[in-house]
Amino acid sequence: MQTIFIQVKSELGKTYEVADAAIEIDGVSEVYSTSGHYELLLKCYLDDGDDIGHFVNERIQTLPGVRDTFTIITFKAFG
């Protein structure tokens, strides 16, 4: 299992619509609102064989209202 985090910048006034759509995507575990350069933080679990680039490009970046993304790939969870 791969764990990734995706920060999402949405179009003005579209953050809640993007969050509602993102949480329905298979592989997206949690969606958080954040402050700063990005409005949302998505915690995602993908199977080991899944292609992260295709997941982000085809499932997240194509959501209506998504303006930009920043993907964080994790290696090890502590605790």
Number of strands: 4
Question: How many strands, what sense, and barrel or not for the largest sheet?
Answer: 4 strands, antiparallel
CATH homologous superfamily heading: Lrp/AsnC effector binding domain/regulation of amino acid metabolism (RAM) domain
The level-1 CATH class:
Alpha Beta
Q: How many H/I helical runs?
A: 2
Q: Portion of residues in helices?
A: 10-25%
What's the SSE pattern?
A: EHEEHE
Strand content: 35-45%
* CATH-defined architecture: 2-Layer Sandwich
Q: Look at the structure and give the mean pLDDT.
A: 97
Instruction: Please compute the radius of gyration using only Cα atoms.
Output: 12 Å
Q: Could you give the order of strands across the largest sheet?
A: 2-3-1-4
The parts where pLDDT drops under 50 for at least 5 residues are: none
User: What overall geometry do the principal axes of the alpha carbons give?
Assistant: globular
Helix- and strand-based class?
alpha+beta
* Tally of distinct domains: 1
Distance between the termini: 17 Å
Describe it.
- The protein is an alpha+beta fold and 79 residues long.
- The protein has a single domain, classed as Lrp/AsnC effector binding domain/regulation of amino acid metabolism (RAM) domain (Alpha-Beta Plaits, 2-Layer Sandwich), CATH 3.30.70.920.
- It is 22% helix and 38% strand.
- The protein contains 2 helices and 4 strands.
- The chain has helices at residues 15-22, 52-60; strands spanning 2-10, 28-33, 40-46, 66-73.
- The chain has a 4-stranded antiparallel beta sheet with strand order 2-3-1-4, covered by helices on one side.
- The longest helix has 9 residues, at 52-60.
- The protein is globular.
- The relative contact order is 0.33.
- The mean pLDDT is 97.
